[in-house]
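COMPLEX REQUEST
Ligand: adenosine monophosphate
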Amino acid sequence: MSILVAGSVALDSIRTPFGNRKEILGGSATFFSMTASFFNKVNIVAAVGEDFPKKYIALLKKKSVGLEGLDIRKGSKTFRWSGKYEYDLGTAHTIATHLNVFRDFDPKVPGSLRRPRALFLANIDPDLQLKVLKQVARPKLVACDSMNYWIQSRRKSLIKLLKNVDVFLLNDGEARQLTGEGNLLKAARRALSYGPKAVVVKKGEHGVIYFSRNYHFISPAYLLETVRDPTGAGDTFAGGMIGYLSTVKGISAPAICRGIAYGSVLASFTVEDFGIDRLRRISMRDIRRRYEHFKKITRF
Ligand code: AMP
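STATUS: Structure written out below.
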C-alpha cells in the first residue's frame, strides 16, 4: 500500500552564499515524494498552472511519483516561492510567496488513492490539509508539516488539523512561534497538548528531537563538508522518515529511531546541491551506505 502526500509543487528562486537559481523545481510535495519514493509508492495531491514546465512532469514520472492527483489547471500560474539564506544557512528568509494556483485550489483525492497506508500533509494551507484528510479512509500513519507563513495566517485551522495527526514535524523557530514557549522542551509539550501523538522538532544542522508523551529521542544531523542550499531539507527529512515507517509492521520506538536516521540521511543529500539536483542522482545504494556510516558515528 502506498503513501499519499498533499502539498506544494512549486517553482523556487533561491539565493544562498554559494549561488542562486531561478524558477527551479521545488515545493513541499515534490521534495517529500522524491525521497519517500525510495521506500514505497508515493502519489501526489497538488495543483500546478499551465506554465509548469513539462520537463519537471517527466522528471517526477521518471522517479515513479504518481501524478494522478496532480491538477494541471488551465489559465492558472504555478505557485512560486523565493527565498534567501545567510552564511549559517539555518533560516530561510522568504522574499516572496505567490500562491497563484493554490489561491482557490479545491483538492480532490482520486477514488483510487483514498486508502493510503500513510498520509503526509506537507507544508501548504492548513485548510487544504484538512480537506485532504477528510477525503481519505483513516491511514495507519498521518503526519503533517507547516511553516511560519501558515502559523501566522491560519493558526486556528492548523490547531484543528493537529487534533487529527499522529506526527507533527516543525522546526525550532516554528515550535516557539506556535506555542509561545521559548524553551524547546516546553514548546514540544505544549505542541503535544494540541493533539498529535508525537512532535519532531527540526533544528537544521543541529539535528532533530523526537518527542512523544513518555519518550524522547535526540539525533544529530549527518555532518557534511559541502552545504549549498538547505531548501527542501525538512520535506526530504519527512520523506525519509515517513517513507521508512510506511514499510514497517509496527511503529515501535526503535523503528522511529531508524526512521529519523533515514530522514537525516535523505536531508543530508538534499542540502549538498540546489533544489533537487543532488537528490535526482542518488540511488538506494548511496542512501544505505550513508545510513550505515551515520549509525557508526552516532553510536556510543
Ligand atoms: P523546506 O523543506 O521547509 O525547506 O521547504 C521548502 C519548500 O517549501 C520550497 O520548495 C517552497 O516551494 C515550499 N514553500 C515555501 N513557502 C511555502 C508556503 N507558504 N506554502 C507551501 N509551500 C511553501
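REMARKS: Residues 241 and 259 are 4 Å apart (CA to CA). The longest strand covers residues 19-26.
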